[in-house]
Amino acid sequence: MFILTNYLNPSTNKYSEQELVTMLQQRNGQSFSYLYDNYAGALFGIIKGIIPDEEVVRDVLQEVFVNIWKKIELYDATKGRLFTWMMNVARNAAIDKLRSRSYQDSLKNRAIPENVDISMPGAVVTQQGDDVGLKKVLTRLKEEHRVLIDLSYFQGYTHEEIAKALNIPLGTVKTRIRSALMQLRNMIQ
Amino acid sequence: MNIQEYISSGIVESYVLGLASPEERVEFESLCVQYPELVAARTEFELALEKQLLRDAAVAPRDLKQTVMNLVNDQSSINQTKIITMTSSNANRGSSSLRWVAAASVILFLGFGFLAYKYYSEAEDLRRENDARVVDQQVKDSTFNQLALENKLMKELMDNPNVAAVNMVPTTPGKPSASIYWDSTSSNVYMVVKNMPKLPSDKQYQLWALIDNKPKDLGLFDVGDKKVILKMNNTQKADAFAITIENRGNTGGPNLQQLQNMGKAKL
């Protein structure tokens, strides 16, 4: 059994990636507390960029952390870093939630704000100045690139769906997205 | 393959951010095995991204941490409670078919492809270039498909909320264990085995599901050096899972003296 109170205060220990993974796989509570303290904010930011409803964002973040704890054996270190894996788990969970029947139904009962493009289901209102993390970095991209990253990364549309919706060739979608990603690399280097 | 060109194409960023297609993922992962410079490029981007996202991260709700830690604590105590006792009578036997879904099967596939190729080239007096290429491609395709399937499976197990993870607890503390991934909607059972000790050749491990205190055979298995994920027999119900050591090819019930791991499924 874990002693809960110890884990509410941020740990002063620093763990290497390898140590952290090993401890998590041994179901060490302290390492999980460390994980939350250091990474919950970044994952919160990613989910927030995908789902506008704060209550739902909280639910998804909670589910994601419990899921990471339960299924840590599925993390494969040869395929990338722990944070990358967690980022993708968080993004997938958020997009699944966004596209879920229950969430979509709840949207229908709300008034749609003016600056939302209702032709794309699950369209997210972008609020300037509210952006964190990746979204903030992406605001520096050219508009035509930013839109594509927004549609593919934050809204989970496939290249085919984007090409169809924006009426541009599939090849152009892919090329532009790749180009945007290369710019992103330069911006965060 | 011009690896530098590949590295500069945006594929690295695409892969890390989860935007690559399944085919692109398999290609990327296969190339990572061959090209350390690709792995270096991937790590470099991952670190830069991580640094950026942690730098001005949003602050996660404080009260959420307590909720999460409580939920995680509950998970651990479920496994430590010894509620279920196994009875070895009326062991329910299903078929012992075992399908390997991981490195082992990739090697098997490659082996098969190679044997087919060898046989083919020996049967012919004159080997035509075209035909050799076709067989090569078939080998490549089957490996590719296998890797794609593996990726698909891992993603499914992780993202599907109907897939419950049951972490087995060793009966001897400190000994290695296994994890069960059980899809309650499809009844599929997968097991991740890591570091479980190899057994003498006359012994095998066996996985059981416990339903109303009665054990149901989910399959015999061996372990290797690598971490693998195995597909076991289906079960619609399970109160708990258990692993025992049995004689090779056991057809009877579980040997309770040799219970190695146990995990209670969430109700």
Short characterization:
The complex is a heterodimer of chains A (189) and B (267). Chain A has 189 residues and is mainly alpha-helical.
Describe the protein's architecture and organization.
With 189 residues, chain A is mainly α. Helices cover 62% and strands 0% of the residues of chain A. Chain A has nine helices and no strands. Chain A has helices spanning 17-25, 29-50, 54-70, 82-98, 101-108, 133-138, 143-154, 159-166, 170-188. Chain A is globular and about 50 Å long. Chain B is built from seven helices and ten strands. At the A-B interface, helix 2, helix 3, helix 4, helix 6 and helix 9 of A face helix 2, helix 4, helix 5 and helix 7 of B.
Secondary-structure blueprint:
The complex is a heterodimer of chains A (189) and B (267).
Chain A: H1 17-25, H2 29-50, H3 54-70, H4 82-98, H5 101-108, H6 133-138, H7 143-154, H8 159-166, H9 170-188
Chain B: H1 3-7, H2 11-16, H3 22-34, H4 36-55, H5 62-80, E1 99-100, H6 103-123, H7 129-159, E2 163-167, E3 169-170, E4 178-183, E5 189-193, E6 203-211, E7 214-221, E8 228-232, E9 240-247, E10 259-264
Antiparallel strand pairs in B: 1-8, 2-4, 3-10, 4-5, 5-8, 6-7, 6-9, 9-10
Helix pairs in contact in B: 3-4, 3-7, 6-7
Structural descriptors:
heterodimer, A: 189 residues, mainly alpha, B: 267 residues, alpha+beta, five-stranded antiparallel beta sheet, 7 helices, 43% helix
Number of strands of chain B: 10
Q: Tell me the strand order in the biggest sheet of chain B.
A: 1-8-5-4-2
Poorly predicted regions of chain B? 88-123
Q: Mean of the pLDDT scores of chain B?
A: 80
